[in-house]
Amino acid sequence: MSKRSYDQPGCGLATALDLLGQRWTLLIVRELMVGPLRYTDLLSRLSGIGTNLLASRLRQLEQAAVLGRHELPPPAASVVYELTERGRQLESIVTGLATWGRQYVDDAAGVELDVRSEAFALHCAFRPERARYVDDVYQFEVESAVMHARVHEGRLETGVGPVPYPKATIRLDRHTWTALLRGEVEDLAARGGGLDVEGDRAAARRALRVFGRPGAVKSPGTTASR
Amino acid sequence: MSKRSYDQPGCGLATALDLLGQRWTLLIVRELMVGPLRYTDLLSRLSGIGTNLLASRLRQLEQAAVLGRHELPPPAASVVYELTERGRQLESIVTGLATWGRQYVDDAAGVELDVRSEAFALHCAFRPERARYVDDVYQFEVESAVMHARVHEGRLETGVGPVPYPKATIRLDRHTWTALLRGEVEDLAARGGGLDVEGDRAAARRALRVFGRPGAVKSPGTTASR
DNA sequence: CGGAATCCTCTTCGATACTG
DNA sequence: CAGTATCGAAGAGGATTCCG
């Protein structure tokens, strides 16, 4: 069993780092920000982690109530790990770190899109201060990557795949997508052909406002690929 | 030499964690948020770190341009470590983590005030969104702890000890101080006797607005004590 | 096949001792 | 004061095995 603690009870930062400061922990949170995952999915997405560590980290995080274990209903009958409310409170910290770290990476364009990574990029580009009164469900389609986003009460929830009744479905090519994330797409018509909307155009216009930070994420959280 | 990297170039979070995710690193940033420190001061404030690790972390952080090494002018002729602009960009992440971690700590009142810890608590209680048009220098005095804060262009800078010409000097007892940090002191007169202002009362009123978050830091970042 | 525990090697940490 | 050098202990990573 582990216990390399900073032993500074009373200090919030030291306590937070006792829980989250170990290797892999925040990457697990990153993975779950886009939606629940099974043990094996985590294992394959976090290439290099080693099964014992993953098990140990999940146990610690569950104990700290950062995530929960849930059994899926019968058809799937499997266990998924999911962020709790406490875990979701880490979202702005994780995206903040990701955005900060971005200044060290030189953008050699990735090879293939990973849906969850792109959905995470959406989190990084999200501007809560602009989402105050927005209540929309969007579907995004970038090449083969289909994902959705719900903006509700100033918060963002994302998921992979399509969603039943989106207010607007926004289809983009790769270049327009990264431009959107950087906040460089201000107008539905501005880009010739790179962007196509189905559904409520006003909602799509709100999406352009709510996503896209000036200095933010260009290419996304590339997770393991091999 | 070390290199246990996540090896996910292209992912901002993984890159950030390669730099900051090792043990002690963010606590070093925390210490420097309140102002420059010498090697030995860091060593004594981060009880448990071990001198080789501190040296190694400082080297890495300097290389990543998170902090800088500066020689003090002749009288002191000593080296201090100081956050760079990049390092200061981590402030909101560090205070966010500290605030998040706070929910796990039960507030058994600390024994003795540490000025730097209280100044750090001020960072945690700072609300940038309310500081947009504020441009003030305050001095705070809580028991034996004297510190100052400059709010300028939406950002906060703190330091220990007195400051030449503060707009307002605010003296508080310990209880009122923690209440202030929690955002529970709304009025200069509200607390009988716990608070005393010298200088510009309007500035002091702004201070009450700019510091103090609802769910925020109660007792501060207690650093090592032994 | 999903969800781990075990074993073994290698890296990192922490403490102490030592140096310019 | 500001570090470097050294060394035992704890933690990480990889492979293999086990359980349901």
Question: Could you explain how this protein is built, in words?
Answer:
Two copies of one chain form a homodimer. The first copy, chain A, has nine helices and seven strands, in the order H-H-H-H-E-E-H-H-H-E-E-E-E-H-E-H. Chain A has 226 residues and is an alpha+beta fold. The first copy, chain A, has two domains: 12-89, Arc Repressor Mutant, subunit A; 94-210, SCP2 sterol-binding domain (Nonspecific Lipid-transfer Protein, Chain A). In chain A, the strands form two sheets. The first copy, chain A, has a five-stranded mixed beta sheet. In chain A, strands 1-2 form a two-stranded antiparallel sheet. In chain A, a hairpin with a 7-residue loop joins strand 1 and strand 2 (79-83). The longest helix of chain A is centred in the first third of the chain and has 13 residues, at 51-63. The two termini of chain A are 31 Å apart. At the A-B interface, helix 1, helix 2 and helix 6 of A face helix 1, helix 2 and helix 6 of B.
Termini of chain A, distance in Å?
A: 31 Å
Round the mean pLDDT of chain A to the nearest integer and report it. 88
CATH class of the largest domain in chain A: Alpha Beta
Order of helices and strands of chain A: HHHHEEHHHEEEEHEH
The helix-and-strand class of chain A reads alpha+beta
Pair of chains with the largest interface and how many residues each contributes: A-B, 51 and 51 residues
Shape estimate of chain A:
globular
Q: Runs of chain A with pLDDT <50, length 5+?
A: 218-226
Architecture of the largest domain in chain A, according to CATH?
Answer: 2-Layer Sandwich
Name of the CATH homologous superfamily of the largest domain in chain A? SCP2 sterol-binding domain
Describe the strand arrangement of the main beta sheet of chain A, using strand numbers. 5-4-3-6-7
Integer tally of domains of chain A: 2
Largest sheet of chain A: 5 strands, mixed
Tally of helical runs of chain A: 9
CATH topology annotation of the largest domain in chain A: Nonspecific Lipid-transfer Protein, Chain A
Helix fraction of chain A by DSSP (H/I, runs of at least 4): 25-40%
